[in-house]
Amino acid sequence: MEITFITDADYLANANTMAAPCAAHAITSRAPKGRRTARGFTMIETMGALVVTGILSSIALPSFQAQVHKARRADVLVSMMQVQMAQERWRSNNASYGALADIGAASKSSGGHYTVTLASITSQGYEVTAMAVGAQAGDAACRHMKLTATGTNVAYASGQDASMANAAAANRICWSL
Questions:
Q1: Structural contact between residues 42 and 145, judged by C-beta atoms closer than 8 angstroms
Q2: Residue 37 φ/ψ region, left for φ over 0, alpha for ψ in the -120 to 50 degree band, beta for the rest
Q3: Where in the chain are the domains?
Q4: What is the pLDDT of residues 7-31, one digit of tens each?
Q5: Cα first-last separation, the chain
Q6: How many CB atoms lie within 10 A of CB 82?
Q7: DSSP string, the chain
């Protein structure tokens, strides 16, 4: 194989037969005559993007809110279990269960999403009820929650209103995370 080198003089002498270097060619790009080049989004494209965004938001927002309500429900479950433990400590030293002030429990959950009350306080048991307040009141199925302790038995109830009449499946959803 033979390699030949071209000098500048040879190149200039044969300029008609050799192609000019790339830098010598002017590069221009023009849109065909009669057409304008696109410089952004059209109104229809923008409206289409807004419609798609709206549809996705309408699907995602309720799911997100359900998860937020579920997380806030953990707040009241912790508060009610703390009341239950405080009641048992109180009962170990006294003849009956005590009121919230007696056992040193708060009347609001730690996050402030539920108000906590005690009812039916006897020597045999008590009822802890919680009612959703503020934004948590939008958690329709689990707006009201109740823990009833009688002797060694503990029962859990929940509902949309003070009757706390959720079916067993809905009650499990409210009380389990």
A1: no
A2: beta
A3: 71-175
A4: 666 666 665 555 555 555 555 556 5
A5: 79
A6: 18
A7: -------HHHHHHTTTTSPPPGGGSPP---PPTT-PPP-S--HHHHHHHHHHHHHHHHHHHHHHHHHHHHHHHHHHHHHHHHHHHHHHHHHHHSSS---HHHHT--SB-TTSSEEEEEE---SSEEEEEEEE-GGGGG-GGGSEEEEEEETTEEEEEEESSTT----HHHHHHHH--
pLDDT digits (tens, 9 = 90+) for 59-114: 888 888 888 898 889 999 999 999 999 999 999 999 889 999 999 999 999 889 99
For 23, the token pair is: 């830098």
Token duo for residue 89: 């400590």
Q: Give the Cα separation of 169 and 1 in Å (integer).
A: 86
Spatial contact of 153 and 137, defined as CB atoms under 8 Å apart: no
* Digit-coded pLDDT (tens) for 135-157: 898 888 899 999 999 988 999 99
Judged against a pLDDT cut of 90, whether residue 50 lies above it is answered with: yes
Residue 126: per-residue pLDDT: 94
